[in-house]
Amino acid sequence: MKDVTIHPTACVDDGAQVGAGSKVWHFCHVMPQAVIGERCNLGQNVFVANHVRIGDGVKIQNNVSVYEGVTLEDDVFCGPSMVFTNDLNPRAAFPKGPAGYAKTLVKRGCTIGANATIVCGITLGAHAFIGAGSVVTQDVPDYAIVYGVPARVHGWMCACGQTLSFKGEQAVCACGRRYRQIGRVIALEEEP
């Protein structure tokens, strides 16, 4: 693996793919059929299961397990000790195996705060912002700010991380991006 940093205490199994410029830090374990993109950073004690796909530029902070059935698109941020699940009704005596795992998609640019729990089988929208400690039980729209137990939409956020204030159907961020709101759908209309 060219231009990849792997700490001596990390275990990257044969067959795992780790993209150029990525860093795998202390006590991580990357399973053999995992695919990690370029310029990713896996903090201490991160686990990446078989068949997981992680895009480019993803940052996974300490103590996060990315279980089979989870896909992270480019530029996703996973805060410290946040939790993914992959089984809606787990039973130790009746394991389902990979065919029974629910799929979770985390779209490009999404941020998941520290200690948040993501219940499997949902999609977290592009550039959505999940507040620390939230329990997310349903799909999250693009650009939504959600928090709470269970998490609910409390506002909207630009791709750059600034809160959006809509006047009618329009919002213009300080960074110059322009958005349109139609019901519960936010669309980027113009880049700076």
General description of the model:
It is a single chain. The protein has 192 residues and is an all-beta fold. It has one domain: UDP N-Acetylglucosamine Acyltransferase, domain 1 (3 Solenoid), CATH 2.160.10. It contains no helices and 25 strands. Strands 1-4-7-10-13-16-19-21-22 form a 9-stranded mixed β-sheet, with no helix packed on it. A 6-stranded parallel β-sheet has the order 3-6-9-12-15-18, with no helix packed on it.
Strand count, sense and barrel status of the largest sheet are: 9 strands, mixed
Cα distance, first to last residue? 36 Å
Radius of gyration: 17 Å
DSSP helix fraction: under 10%
What share of residues are in beta strands? 25-35%
In CATH, the homologous superfamily goes by the name Hexapeptide repeat proteins
What's the number of extended β-strand segments? 25
Gross morphology is: globular
CATH class: Mainly Beta
Offer a quick outline of the entry:
With 192 residues, this protein is an all-beta fold. Helices cover 0% and strands 34% of the residues.
Primary descriptors:
UDP N-Acetylglucosamine Acyltransferase, domain 1; 25 strands; 6-stranded parallel beta sheet; 9-stranded mixed beta sheet; mainly beta; 192 residues
